[in-house]
Amino acid sequence: MPRWSRHHTRRAILLVLIAIVGGLLTFGGADMLREFKMRLTMRELQRQCMGYRADPEQIVYDDNPKTLHSLRESDAGLGWYKAKSQPRGRTHIGRQVAPLSQYCNLPGGFPMPVFLHGRTDSRGRQRLTLVHLAERVEDAAELTMTFTLASHAPITPWGYPKMQASDCRLVVPGVPNTTPMRFYAGQPDPEDRSRFSLTFEIDGTRSTINGILNDDGSIKLRMADGPGQLSPVAR
């Protein structure tokens, strides 16, 4: 009787693996191939979002009824929107970023990213970093906005990492909620790859919010200058 060797063991294991893979391809090969292609497409969209740059003077949100029409006519990239979840549904203009709309796959697109770029934490891990202007809270007495903060590790051909997301509220004390507000495109910090900044304008006066991507994937915002108080919102 021939002696069973390590060579025979490795060959047997290889044959079993080939049989398993063959079975998977036979019964689910088409679905697996489609899923693989989809991940590659999403990975490319994510790469485009992580490399997205916008001029710091580019308007991404404005709700001043006196300037909405002129801004919309002068900039085809701005679209009309309405906060349907709010009591009065304040009309405003916002800007979509095509790769992000495709990446999120939401009906009607994904407007008002006030920051979109790739940021890198202190351990050198890069993530898609997004600050989305969720809505203006109309039933508040003072000017109140909410943001969704999200980061997403690079997609691989084999799976989707879990997205890290949280919500944050901006309240500007002493400013009536009827006061118009504008946001400009957020900018990555050229000196620190984990940081970025947001700029908003009230009555012609600009204020700055600084942001940072933490090592756990969370995003933290703090006021750098100007009026405003930031606080987390429980989900």
Write the layout of secondary structure elements.
Blueprint: H1 6-50, E1 59-62, H2 68-74, E2 78-82, E3 91-95, H3 98-104, E4 113-120, E5 126-136, E6 142-152, E7 164-176, E8 182-188, E9 195-202, E10 205-213, E11 219-225, E12 229-233
Antiparallel strand pairs: 1-3, 1-8, 2-3, 4-5, 5-6, 6-7, 7-12, 8-9, 9-10, 10-11
Helix pairs in contact: 1-3
Structure, described:
The chain has 235 residues and is an alpha+beta fold. The chain has helices spanning 6-50, 68-74, 98-104, and strands spanning 59-62, 78-82, 91-95, 113-120, 126-136, 142-152, 164-176, 182-188, 195-202, 205-213, 219-225, 229-233. It is 25% helix and 40% strand. Strand 2 and strand 3 (91-95) form a beta hairpin. The model has no long low-confidence stretch (mean pLDDT 86).
Oligomer: single chain
Radius of gyration, in Å, reads: 24 Å
Mean pLDDT: 86
Largest sheet: 7 strands, antiparallel
Global geometry = elongated
